[in-house]
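yo

u said u wanted the structure for the complex thing, so here. seqs first:
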Amino acid sequence: MTSTLIDPATLPGWSTDPAARAAARLDRSGFDPGSDPDAVVVAGSVDEVAAVLAHANATGTPVVVRGAGSGLSGGAVAGAGSIVLDLTGLDRIVEISPADEYAVAEAGVITADLDAAAAAHGLRYAPDPASLAISTIGGNIATNAGGLRCAKYGVTRDSVLGLDVVLADGRRIATGRRTVKGVAGYDLTGLFVGSEGTLGVVVGATLRLRPAPVATATLAAWFDGIGAAAAAAAAITAARLQPSVAELLDTACLTAIADAGGPAPRGGAFLLVQTDGFGADAEIDAVRAVVEPLAGSVDVAADPAGAEALLATRRAGLPALERLGRVLVEDVAVPRSRLADAVDAIAAISARSGIRIATMAHAGDGNLHPILVLEPGRELDEHVWACAGEVFTTALRLGGTLTGEHGVGLLKRRWLRDELGDDVVDLQQQLRAVFDPRGVLNPGKAI
Amino acid sequence: MTSTLIDPATLPGWSTDPAARAAARLDRSGFDPGSDPDAVVVAGSVDEVAAVLAHANATGTPVVVRGAGSGLSGGAVAGAGSIVLDLTGLDRIVEISPADEYAVAEAGVITADLDAAAAAHGLRYAPDPASLAISTIGGNIATNAGGLRCAKYGVTRDSVLGLDVVLADGRRIATGRRTVKGVAGYDLTGLFVGSEGTLGVVVGATLRLRPAPVATATLAAWFDGIGAAAAAAAAITAARLQPSVAELLDTACLTAIADAGGPAPRGGAFLLVQTDGFGADAEIDAVRAVVEPLAGSVDVAADPAGAEALLATRRAGLPALERLGRVLVEDVAVPRSRLADAVDAIAAISARSGIRIATMAHAGDGNLHPILVLEPGRELDEHVWACAGEVFTTALRLGGTLTGEHGVGLLKRRWLRDELGDDVVDLQQQLRAVFDPRGVLNPGKAI
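structre next:
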């Protein structure tokens, strides 16, 4: 084997240029490894990915796979001693099958580009992480990214039919299939999704596409406070309605939006609901009927322009917070019935710690994004992490999880055993060793 | 450890009675291991499951887990040298959470019973394998069972949030979570689903429930032949409609139904379509519009009684075939666009082999059930398996899979490398060894 090894330094995409290495050091997590990676290699083909891995495996060199670098958990940060394998050059949409409603895409394809290509056939790629305009399919798969439409359409895993993977030693395998169903062998596809670059390098995927809905209806409601808004979300569930989107903003979000000159708040909490499909209008009427008794005011959009106006408040949330300082976007999930408890507990953590925390939540699936806002000049110090840690343990105490859709990366590793238990973490480490016996794939991350 | 081992022969559920052993030897696959298992133990609790496994692991005794014995791939057959661990006594529905739309159930709960319990809250358990009145949740999880509603609502995996598992050495772990989203650690839940009793013993599950649809609409269409029916199914897809059910019967099925005194055929192929939700009626009208130009006749049910009348043809299929002789229910899947090719190829295999094959298909997801009907007195001989093998290789040639929803079990092992390739099978065997290093869990099955 070693006689056929190609030195990655001979590849056209190889660089040890200081600027290239510095650009590949960070992601959007706020975590700094303290040094630059030794080199960056922009893969020009799957064969080059295989060559890089075979060499890294033979030499014991850590490899950090990088897409758009938009991750929020530190999964793609890379320091001295490692090389960064950049997949953004693998950006071909290989196939769209309108008849079988799937797409085959390379890992570096931007998620929004795939969705746009699907739209030309009346289809859509359902997962819609907030980063979709910049993040890649490969990165979405690495973290099992979610988005706004998950409660109805599932997370990334639910849209991945199969994967093309390069193993740590450079061998290539295909997992899954192009059919909707299949149960031949263990679900390796599911194992790779969410594995954050630690089991193999996903270079391509067969992705399920779904019919674009014939209609979408939009409702916005304002409430006195988070308790009433959460009660409204619970009432929607209790009425057995299934919105495609149900987004909740707390008072801290609404205040920041107003301070930024955005839509004026009409209450202390905001809930945005969308329904879709042939029954969108009938279902939004049913939503209105259960929400209205709990709300201060309710608007249903009459047309797409009206829907955009209602969506503006939700969209204004993160930019308004980013104006105030550096943000740490957290990502916990709880059973939906504990949403109000979670938001209240997070507000109490904010008050105790003195760190401003605003919470946006995907109310339909119980996924909360508490956003820690640091005053200008403040670093991500231990006090900030302790505050984030309180948020994590709150989610676990309420029966939830450390991470709904962003992944464990570097930032949440120290809490992982609290959620999973020692036996499960130990099993997962053994699984990791099956795929990567030499420990070259994103060492120190995820599990 | 050995000092604390409990001999399973001391458990109240233990039996070496010949009748009990004989009753645990077969499932519904038609495969006979040629001998009875050494013993059967009906577990009375999870602790007893753990005790059985710890002892089996220590002594190297093969354990075959059994639910209702309704499997069609031989995953639960058990011969001399093995003990059968029967989970049908673990039949408690532990919790239904209407607020969070999940259920916690033990492995031995009958699938239909869970669905009925959910219905009391306006919810349903979406996976609906044809065996749901007799099969168990644990068995459904072991094979990642499908059903009629998969194209819209997914397979069993898509409704499993978390699992309670006893490992081969008797340790207990919990996988997954009660939240809709979560990405902390590798997806062990997905790994256990479809693993056919080879990675651990699933003793309980947290299952996602979904709103029962407010309305369901039903359409039945008759066509000259399978080509037109498949074209109609393709037209439904091309119109970006999403039926909850789309079932196709071929001429051989319809002939058997008519011979059995069932509904008279009005063509050479039959397609049953259901839509559901707030837009069910509007969506069935859209289905009708695309199907009608291709069909000989189309009926849309006016009410539930009318829907039952249309469903009667589909329901009559398997019983009509079982009248004619012993049946071998196969289970392949192809990309939906290859449905007609697959049905045609299977008809040719039938003509060539002289073995009657009737095909029913879940047209919405490309899953076909070619049903081999053996004349009375005929055994499952090599000629029959060769014929089944031709069906499997046809599915692979068309870009499909050996098994859509029944599992590999014993019957399909010899074709598994053809689908997965050597590298993937080898990796899966290494994963298996992580969970079951002594090889006591259902040896010789699945991978």
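Chain A touches chain B through 95 residues (CB under 8 Å). The domain at 93-211 of chain A is CATH 3.30.465.10 (Uridine Diphospho-n-acetylenolpyruvylglucosamine Reductase; domain 3).
cya
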